[in-house]
Amino acid sequence: MTYPSRVKLVDVGPRDGLQNEKQPVPAAVKIELVERLQAAGLRHIEVTSYVSPKWVPQMADNAEVMHGLKRRSDVVYSVLTPNVKGLEACLSAPREEWPQEIVVFGSATEAFSQKNINCSIAESIERFAPVVQMAREQGIHVRGAMSCTVGCPYEGEVAPEKVGHLARLMKDIGVQHVGVADTIGVGTPGKVRAAFEATLAHYGLDEVSGHFHDTYGQALSNTLAALEMGVWQFDTSVAGLGGCPYAKGATGNVATEDVVYLLHGLGIHTGIDLDALIDAGVFVSQALGREPNSRVSKAIRTKRCA
Ligand SMILES: CC(C)(COP(=O)([O-])OP(=O)([O-])OC[C@H]1O[C@@H](n2cnc3c(N)ncnc32)[C@H](O)[C@@H]1OP(=O)([O-])[O-])[C@@H](O)C(=O)NCCC(=O)NCCSC(=O)C[C@@](C)(O)CC(=O)[O-]
Questions:
Q1: Where does the record place the Pyruvate carboxyltransferase domain (predicted)?
Q2: What range defines the domain where residue 46 resides?
C-alpha cells in the first residue's frame, strides 16, 4: 500500500474542541493552547468561530483570542464564519489579526442544517456565497466544512448523493476546499470512502480533507481508509477535545496525538514533535479538569512515569 508522502493536519482543538465546553474557558487558556500547538509543529490551527454568542457562548471571545495570539509567519490560522456578519466582525480587526483561511459550514442533511445554522441547505448556500466572494477578494482562502456526510443525529444514515449535492453547491459558489465530516462519529471505512468518492466528483484530491469524530472508535480506521484513497489533509483535535453543540452525544474529534503516532508509524513526516503535542494536550486537559482523550498520550505518559 502506498500512502501520501506528506500529510497536513489542521488542529481544530481550540475551536471544535472547546466550542461545546459548558465551563467558561478563559481566552488566555485558548491563546496558550494555540501557541503550544504551533510550538509543537502544527502549521494549521483552527482558532475560533465568529458565530452568534447566543448559539455558542464559548466562542464569544473570538476577537480577544485572535488579538492575543503571538503569531508565527509559517502558521495558517483559520476561523469559522457562517455569514457576512461573522466575516465582517472578523475583518473589523487590524489586518495582521485576520485569519488566512475562513470556513463556511454546511450540512449534507436538511435537519442538521436547521439545527446547526437555522436555515435550509439552499439558504445556507445563499448566505455563504457573499462570504466566499468577500473573503476571496481579500485573498483569504475559503474552506467548506460538510457536516453529516455519513450519518446525521436527526436523519440517520446519509446517502453519498447528498454529499455530492452539497459538494457541488459549495464548488458552484467558489469554496476552494471541502472537508468531509463525520460529525457524530458513526462512519466506518466503506461509508467514509463513499462520501469521499461523491465529493471527489466535484473537488480534486488536493482540495479535500477528512474530519472524523471518534464516538464509535472508528476515526483512526477512517483516517487510514482516506489515506489509502490518497487524501492527505485531515482535521484533528489535540487531546481528542470536542463535539458539536448541535450533535448531542457525539464525542470529540480524533486526537491529534493518535493520528500523529499513526502517521509516524507509517513513515509519513509531519514535522510535529509528539512529546510537545502531548504536553499541549495535558495543558488544556488540566485547564478543563480532565484527562486527555488520547490513547497515545496516555501510553506515552505512563511510559514517562515508568
Ligand atoms: C449561523 C447563525 C448565526 C444563524 O442564526 P440566526 O438566528 O438564524 O441568525 P440571524 O441572522 O437571524 O441573527 C440572529 C441573531 O444572531 C446575531 N448573529 C447572526 N450572525 C452572527 C454572527 N456571525 N456573529 C455574531 N452574532 C450573529 C444577529 O445579530 C442576531 O442578534 P440579535 O439581534 O438577536 O441580538 C447561528 O445559527 C449560529 O451562530 N450558529 C452557530 C452554529 C455553530 O457554531 N455550530 C458549531 C460549529 S459547526 C461544527 O462544529 C461542525 C464542524 C464544522 O466541526 C464539522 C463537523 O464535524 O460536522
A1: 7-278
A2: 8-305
Write out pLDDT tens, residues 151-204. Answer: 999 999 999 999 999 999 999 999 999 999 999 999 999 999 999 999 999 999
> What cell numbers appear for 219 in the block?
476515526
Q: Quote the CA–CA distance of 209 and 22 in Å, as a whole number.
A: 29
State yes or no: pLDDT of 133 exceeds 80: yes
ipTM greater than 0.90, yes or no?
A: yes
Please report whether residue 199 resides in a domain. yes
| Ligand 1 center–CA 82 separation, angstroms | 6
Q: Tens digit of pLDDT for each residue in 11-58?
A: 999 999 999 999 999 999 999 999 999 999 999 999 999 999 999 999
CA-nearest residue for atom 14, ligand 1, is 52
Using CA positions, which residue lies closest to atom 28 of ligand 1? 52
Q: Cα–Cα distance between 42 and 109 in angstroms, integer?
A: 32
What CATH number did the domain enclosing 33 receive?
Answer: 3.20.20.70
Contact residues of ligand 1, CB 6 A cut-off: 16, 19, 49-52, 55-56, 80, 82-83, 85-86, 89, 105, 116-118, 145, 147, 181, 183, 211, 244-246
Catalytic residues: 244
Task: Name the burial class of residue 89, with classes exposed (0-12), middle (13-18) and buried (19+) by CB atoms within 10 angstroms of its CB.
Answer: middle
